[in-house]
Amino acid sequence: MVERAQSMGLANFRLVILKGKAYVQTYWHSFQSRDIFTLWGILQLLRRYPGRIPDLDMMFNCGDLPIVHSSAFSGPNATSPPPVFNYNKDSTTLDIIFPDWAFWGWPEIDIKPWVPLLNDLKEGNTREKWVDREPYAYWKGNPSVSRNRRDLFKCKTSFFHDWKARLYAQNWKRASRRGYKKSNLADQCTHRYKIYIEGAAWSVSQKYILACDSMTLLVKPRFYDFFARGLIPRHHYWPIRDDNKCRSIKFAVEWGNSHPEEAQEIGKTGSKFIQEELKMEYVYDFMFHALNEYAKLLKYEPTIPPGATELCSESMVCQANGLAQEFMIESMVKGPVDSSPCTMPPPYDPSSLSSFLQRNTNSTKEVELLENQNKHP
């Protein structure tokens, strides 16, 4: 079943862990260095918890979109879906969620590994008090990757309308190194509100936007990564309609400016979630539990695939150069940790899960009702 992901063209690489060592068989390289830094992150997990990751055989897709569609594996003659790891999924796909590559650095656009970047973002939050920030919603990114983002750019200020949004296009493929510096994430906590909107699928920018203690205006998402389902509307973020973005954003900004204490609290709660619940140690622990639970499902003994090469941190560092090498050194796990991984809580029972999801739905509907009434609570 695992090998079917290769024959169906669903995976960038196959990774086998055997007796604590990692072996990779690359089918096709990902965009930029996503595959390299994903493999690097798994190697750091093996260094952090040596001997504690069981033998396993996994396929990984590094694209934006989840790729295992449930509709392709339904019906009386359907085959079982191949297990493929990915960075995100939606309700129509069966990909296995895994933390994204950027936790260990994104050299192509000069984004640091998560630990030093999180410190920079924390410091950036202190440079300007919330009340002194620009009383508008801010977004900077590439609008050309999806219709959803192109639609957002209809909310740019014009002679006829001020939708209270300050939007800036950034084409990462064409940006110079100077352009990256001007896009330093720690320098972007200058507005009271920051917009998160998906690109082709989920966007890696979500954690960076939430880490500013500006109130996040989260345009209704379709996709989710490994932590997003823990976010609660009107607690960690303010929900924005996807079918009427401009008016929804304008209402959110005006509501926040007239309810500054509540808006600040939402911003701080979202930032606190990222700072405390998304610590690098917890990212590793999620990886640890995901791979351990996955390995339990294998019904065969993994073997090294033909043509696979062994990976080790030292050789990857030596083969890298520039920022990629710098980020690898900066994010390298120095050695085993004395502590054990966190204990996973039991899964939600159906009733509790339904109740949690319904509370989130109700909270979003309350915001939509306020918008429709076009008056403050």
Automatic annotation (TrEMBL):
Looking up SMART domains in the UniProt record yields: CAP10
Can you give the residue ranges of the Glycosyl transferase CAP10 domain? 52-301
Q: Where is this region: Disordered?
A: 338-377
- Superkingdom classification of source: Eukaryota
Q: Bias category Polar residues: which stretches?
A: 351-364
Coiled coil start-end = none
Q: In its UniProt entry, what is this protein called?
A: Lipopolysaccharide-modifying protein
> Which species?
Trema orientale
